[in-house]
Amino acid sequence: MSKIELLSPAGTLEKLKIALDFGADAVYGGVSHFSLRIRSGKEFSMEEFKEGIDYAHARGKKVYATINGFPFNSQLSLLKKHILAMAELGPDAFIVATPGVLKLAHELAPQIPLHLSTQANVMNVLDAKVFYDMGAVRIITAREISLKDLVAIKTELPDLELEVFVHGSMCFAYSGRCLISTLQSGRVPNRGSCANDCRFPYEMYAANPETGTLFKLEEDEGVGTYIMNSKDLNLASHIQEILDSGVVDSIKIEGRTKTSYYAATTAKAYRMALDDYANGTVDVDRYQYELQSLQNRGYTDAYLISRPFEKHDTQSLDFTMQLGTHQVCGQVNEAGTHFLCKYKTLPNDEMEVVFPLGSKVEIVDNEIGSTYEKDGRFYLKLKQLKAQNGKIWEEVHSGNINPITLPTSFPSYTFFRVGAHPDMGTYPKK
């Protein structure tokens, strides 16, 4: 079986580098409102996206450019210019969502491979064949598809690459085809500006139009009002089943708008899972230790392994977001010499170190601090919080922009974390 690709989100140039450094084989991201993340126009300039492509290619890795929005007629001229401009940057593929954009991209930039977005909702052999005949070399299947259906598609179309989501936010609607945000705020999800209205709490009412009577429906305590809030996908415990099928070419992580720590941790966890599978070993607890450290809406394995009607635990009804097992307290700069504080830090706090697989950090004990291993994990304690400008701080907090000196060099974008404190609570607070 060929090597399975690990595909991570790249919401910014920094996140692109982090995802690749922490184990991704490829990343996806975009520029402008033709990407399904409208903020990508602000977070990625054309120059930065080109820098990201060069960064990836220098490491033998890939970048896929998202042009997966649903354009208006008034935007078609601009879309053509955008496709040509993106093709000049040399990405490894375009991700597109509609038959028209796929055809247009194939005509304007025939040298760029085409991947069909999950927004196209491919669930069966018939639809897969239509897009394959139109020139799509890969299909990112709908999140609602089953592993059995993936096998059927691959059997019929063995040369078609299949990509599946294994981690990240799930949509209340059918693979993102939602109009709730459009209805409530005028922000169109399929053009990249979803307001995440499904994550809000709602009050339920019953109205009698004949009498004008309105009743509020009171809910039992603990049932909650987040009636459209899907849990987050987490298939790290099922990597063996997915890969044993022999039909998946790429596993994909959602999350371009999420944090740098998310980009690092998800890439590292699924890199471990893929490497362990290749080596004939599986350690689910190891992967979940990392993934449970992230903020999440509760986790579900959703529909790839189990059929939808068998699942009754895919919604978080009583909260929209909860903290993970750990709190990020620092992020190392690209040079590896200093870090920026992300959470209250005091001298002699024990911080777990999170760095890319295969990286090494020198064991030291000096006037700045010490590094050491314990129970198979790596830790850092700072004896003094010395800023780059020489100032000594008694404590540092999130928002402090003074780089803090490290006792030794660390890999670029290493993270420090501590166990989440009980009083940190859940968002929103109950």
From TrEMBL:
GO terms for molecular function: peptidase activity. InterPro entries: Peptidase_U32, RNA/ubiquinone_mod_enzymes. Its EC number is 3.4.-.-. It comes from the Bacteria. GO terms for biological process: proteolysis. Keywords: Hydrolase, Protease. The keyword Nucleotide-binding does not apply. Transmembrane segments: none annotated. The keyword Protease applies. Belongs to the peptidase U32 family. This is Peptidase, U32 family. It comes from Sulfurimonas gotlandica (strain DSM 19862 / JCM 16533 / GD1).
